[in-house]
What we know:
Elements: E1 2-3, E2 10-11, H1 16-41, H2 78-84, E3 87-92, E4 95-101, E5 106-113, H3 117-121, E6 124-134, E7 137-146, H4 148-158, E8 161-165, E9 168-169, E10 173-177, E11 185-193
Antiparallel strand pairs: 1-2, 3-4, 3-11, 4-5, 5-6, 6-7, 7-8, 9-10, 10-11
Amino acid sequence: MQKHPNDSVVLPARSDSARRGRVYWLSLVGIVSLLGSLKIFLGGGETAIPETTTPSAPASPLNVVPVSTRSEKTGLTDEESRRMILGRWETYRDGRRVLDVRDDGAAVMDVQIEGLKSLVVGSKLKLYIAWTIENGVLTFETTGGDPQSSVDLLNSWYGNRREQTILVLDDKTFRVPDDDSGDADHIWTRIAPAP
C-alpha cells in the first residue's frame, strides 16, 4: 500500500495497466461527451424546446403565401371576379347583345344590330372572344366570328382588343366604362348563371 502525500489514508498501489485503463476510460467518456455537445450544437440532437412546442418557421420568400389584392371598384379578387363573370349576360346597344362567358377563357357574343350600322355590317354577328381578368381589368380579344368580313370591318373600326376596368360585378350586374362614347357605362345583366 502506498500513502497519499496529502492524506494519512493508505491507498492500494496501482499497476501501469490499471492506470492506462483508467486514462482510456476517461478519454472515451470525454470524446463521447464532446461528440454529444457537437451534435446538439449542430442541430442534430436534443434541444431544450420539446418538439410539440417548436415555433413555426419565420416568414421567408420561400414560405410566404401571396395575398390576393382586391379591386378598389368591386371589392373582389381577380379569382373571385373570374368565377363571378361566368355565365350568360345581355345588354342593349345598337341592338341586343348576348355574351356567354366560359371558364376556359373563351366567350361567344351573339349580336343583333339595329339601325344604320346593320346596313353596313349586317343584322346578326357572332364574335369569338378570348378573355382574362388581371388586376381588376377585363380584357376581351376578338379571335374570330361570323360572318368574318363583318368581324374584320368592326375590328378595323374599333380594334380587336378591349381592356376595361370592371366597375361593378355581382350576381345580377356587370358594368364597365363605355370606351366608344365615354358618356355612360356599359351595363350587362345576367340572364343565366354558369352551367
